[in-house]
Each structure stands twice: as structure tokens, then as C-alpha cells.
Amino acid sequence: QAFIPYADLSAKQLNCKGSLPLLQIPDPCKTTPCQHNGYCQSYSDGTYYCSCDGTGYVGANCEVSGWVASS
């Protein structure tokens, strides 16, 4: 049998039955990155956003107290 370079192989020669499966991107909200009951919204590209509304906290993960001490 002769050597066939990979680039020259057709789908039929490789016995392929369709397209490759899509990569499964893990849901970043499953690790609960939003602290203090912040709401986590995940996106299809694997990123997330924490909504800190009503928690009294701010920051990317609702980790910073939003309360200002009065003097």
C-alpha cells in the first residue's frame, strides 16, 4: 500500500460520516462565581456576568461591599 499524505485524504477515504462534534464549553456559572447572592448570566463563549443588583455589593463577582460607612 502506498503512503497517502493526510492532506490528500478525502472524507470517503477516511470513512467519515459527517461533521465533527462541537466542543462543549463548560458553564462558568456552575462554579457560582457571583458572591453574596449575585445573579450569574453565562454566555455561549464561556464568559459570564454577575448582576449584583439588590445585594449591597459591587465588583466583577459582587465581592466588594457597596455600603459606605457614615462618619
Describe the global form: rod-shaped
Listing every helix as H and every strand as E from the N terminus to the C terminus, the arrangement reads HEEEE
Which value, in Å, is the CA radius of gyration? 24 Å
Number of helices: 1
Low-confidence stretches: none
Largest sheet: 2 strands, antiparallel
The whole-number mean of residue pLDDT values reads: 81
Helicity, in percent? Answer: under 10%
Percent in strands: 15-25%
- Oligomeric state of the chains? single chain
Strand line-up of the largest beta sheet: 1-2
Distance between the termini: 86 Å
Sequence-ordered SSE layout with sheet pairings:
Layout lengths: L10 H4 L24 E4 L5 E4 L5 E2 L5 E2 L6
Antiparallel strand pairs: 1-2, 3-4
Description:
- The chain is mainly beta and 71 residues long.
- Helices cover 6% and strands 17% of the residues.
- It contains one helix and four strands.
- The strands form two sheets. It has a two-stranded antiparallel ribbon.
- Strand 1 and strand 2 form a beta hairpin.
- The chain starts with 10 loop residues before the first helix and ends in a 6-residue tail after the last strand.
- The model has no long low-confidence stretch (mean pLDDT 81).
